[in-house]
Amino acid sequence: MFRIILILIIFISMIKQGNSQSSQINNQTYDSLLAKKYGADDYGMKKYIMAFLKSGKTELSDKAEQDRLQGEHMKNIIRMAEDGKLLIAGPFMDNQSIRGIYIFDVSTVEEARELTSTDPAIKAGVLEMELHPWYGSAALMEVNDIHKKIQKKSF
Questions:
Q1: Range(s) of the domain holding residue 97
Q2: What is the DSSP string of 67-114?
Q3: Number of structural domains, the chain?
Q4: Residues of the chain below pLDDT 70
């Protein structure tokens, strides 16, 4: 009986040791230089600031003024992306009060607020920003470079 209990204890400890080793994932494709370049933590993630673009208090009825302001808004988006501060930008397509998002590669909400204050649509009161710290994949740092390779037309 003692032998059976001893064998059982050894068997259980071997199972626990195997589970412990298998729970520690060994990522064979991990690239420490790329992780450092993108500011990734051990999970491949990093902090960003997400902005929700919301309808502002100002509504423009003049179509020419709407078009001009939209063009200036797009130029500002392109400038922030080229400066490496804006990683993601895009509208929602369901015509609600939250009109779109930005994801900024900046450390603080205050830095993102400074960037959003340069947007002509915000200055005009057509859009408002709601800013939040956000934790996401550091791979987002590649989005703009990839986008340039697949973008056939420019705004």
A1: 38-150
A2: HHHHHHHHHHHHHHHHTT-EEEEEE-SS-SSEEEEEEE--S-HHHHHH
A3: 1
A4: 1-26
